[in-house]
Fold this protein.
Amino acid sequence: MEGLNWLTARQAAQGIRDGVFSSEDVVKACLAQIEAREPEVQAWAHLDPEHALTQAREADKRRSEGKPTGPLHGVPVGIKDIIDTLDMPTEDGTVLHSGRRPWQDAKIVDALRAAGAIILGKTVTTEMATYAPGKTRNPHNPEHTPGGSSSGSAAAVAAGMVPLAVGTQTNGSVIRPAAYCGVFGFKPTRGTVSCRGILAQSELLDQPGCFARTVEDLALLGETLSTYDEHQKGMRPRSTLPLLRVCEEEPPLPPTLSLVRTPWWDELDADAREGFSELIDHLSDRIGEFEMPDSSVQVLEWHKTIMEADIAASYESDYERGKERMSKSLREQIERGRAVSVVDYRRAAARIEPITESLDEVFDRFDAIITPSAQGPAPHGLDSTGSPQFCTLWTFCGMPAINLPLLTTGNGLPVGVQLVGRVGDDARLLRTARWLLTTLA
Amino acid sequence: MEGLNWLTARQAAQGIRDGVFSSEDVVKACLAQIEAREPEVQAWAHLDPEHALTQAREADKRRSEGKPTGPLHGVPVGIKDIIDTLDMPTEDGTVLHSGRRPWQDAKIVDALRAAGAIILGKTVTTEMATYAPGKTRNPHNPEHTPGGSSSGSAAAVAAGMVPLAVGTQTNGSVIRPAAYCGVFGFKPTRGTVSCRGILAQSELLDQPGCFARTVEDLALLGETLSTYDEHQKGMRPRSTLPLLRVCEEEPPLPPTLSLVRTPWWDELDADAREGFSELIDHLSDRIGEFEMPDSSVQVLEWHKTIMEADIAASYESDYERGKERMSKSLREQIERGRAVSVVDYRRAAARIEPITESLDEVFDRFDAIITPSAQGPAPHGLDSTGSPQFCTLWTFCGMPAINLPLLTTGNGLPVGVQLVGRVGDDARLLRTARWLLTTLA
């Protein structure tokens, strides 16, 4: 049963459902791969192999008893260590929360368990999901950052340790590590996924997301996470989103993509620029250009105002009791954030809607925006997780975004291509991504 | 057809429905009363008698054609002049908005029209619903304030100019003017009534409310205003609340009331204290006491932090372009509010839930809290609208509150008794209020 750890989530679920192999087989293969790669990659904050196997055996027993099973029955998933789990510690990447044991699962962990998933373990996050790196290294080259803040989730999926992982993005924390590690990443529309039981950084900006090795797996995981949560502020009663079904459909017309040269285009590195340009040339008959509104250049500043003020408010008690055990970068973020007035905050937040609306017209003409996921491949060194700049605008607007690991540099590092969709149109974005992969195949 | 202006809303609706008199008759009676009393009371910011009569004639025509009619068919209502009306100016009590014509009705005005109501005119508000008084005087004694900020709505109902009026409360702006003017006032649970199309002062604290001359009329108006609004943040799909039906029911057991001596009890004036004590003695077998949590004394400060920061953010563009045409008090509020940090704001806002929860246990033992509506009767003079202090805690917590005009001072000024209910339990609160009136009758 070798290689089961490299199956996609759908293949794993299908094989378990059909009795070709068991959940225990899959989990054992994942644990073996972790044993082999973890010393180098360091993707896990918490892993209890026995507890994982116990869950898998229970899933197998359930199936053997003919009880109903969910779409992820027996499939292991990695969970970013800022997302609460009842049966495992959740330490938020900070010594301030060492040994923290939540008293209940986050809503999305609950949804995963209801779908039959095995919660394999907790993946490494940067310090409280901000900038100071955790221990994780890039599986393609351990001298390079995996990106952050969902470092372990991206690296674990890339290293074949688990087919699926969950992370969060407040700036570029899903799309960037997915790009650096060369896996598929998906940040759904803001508000689509419950944040309950997840370390709150910014109520306005926090957006949970998915890591996988295929677009279809992103859709499957995304639709599981989209379970309605009556306690999530602003979420209205609705059924689970049909992301996988739509993702697999043929588009009614061949999609068109809009190349959006964001104002920070010049910061794209040479290698990435070349690869991206070749891709655009190759797709030229399906591509048009769209000029960004001038005001979008200010988004970085507005985003920073909101995020730093929210971090200062959200992490206030941690700062009060343990600022000396925080990294300098987090301390400085909090200290800048403490100075932000309500008036300045609201002025920044009031830009979200008009900027989003000004981008909306792209989608009257195009199915998706195509743009780089990051400035280039994963930077050398482990002191930083790289810049989230190429993700900020889409996070600010809450638009759905996908990283496709389409490019590679000369020295074998992945470079991500980002597709961005209209707010609420996640299913169509996934369908467009699948079409693009088929076109390029 | 004299005296039709003094009918309750339900009597007026019934008479119109039965053809005893027409909507035009009722509106004419109201206009005649306005003509008689308006020079002294000054309750109206905008009144176009012809337009009111046109609406009434259309209502009468509709009825005569046998078309469906709503529960307020033909009944005139006054609307506070911070609530948008498509067919009348909405000037927000400030010269900065002189001549402002909204391009659509506020959601609650829309709901009133759908129920058949006649929008009689716009009632006077203080400056942008804050502290600087408008022109209105107390109908019981023109040398006394009517209270604010919903000054005109309270005074118009008290003076028999209209059976119903709508106002808003961010601190004490419904209950206090109702108490000073001697009418029934009702501030529903926060979030029950849509704020769309109403001058936004504080998203957290703004709470629309009702003025009438009976509790049943409050229930009828409140249930009309509770219409679901899909665009109102945080409102979940639900049917209209059955306030009137429950209000008219007999309580399953004789209700009990909890006397809550708020920390600012000592500020109650002698006259009001005496009347209130007599009432409590009279009801002694139905009354128990409840000790306020110590922290509640800080509510005034938390409320101020939130309100002033919100005002500074909400009125920012008005301040920038016209601060010299604002009152000193509003300017100072805004200037204090501009200095409030997001961290301080969130710390204050985070107290709402625990304070509300600590009060919740009152309602396991009692049907309602009984407490004064204000420090006493309407203060002498027109330079201030009096203190909202006796309303702040309940507004902060978003609890439903009713003013009952049960007491009178020696010189004929009304003194209000406030009943406060559990969050979401508005119907029960109205039922308890009706029971109390019956008991005292």
Summary: The two ends of chain B are 29 Å apart (CA to CA). The first strand of chain B starts at residue 44 and ends at 47.
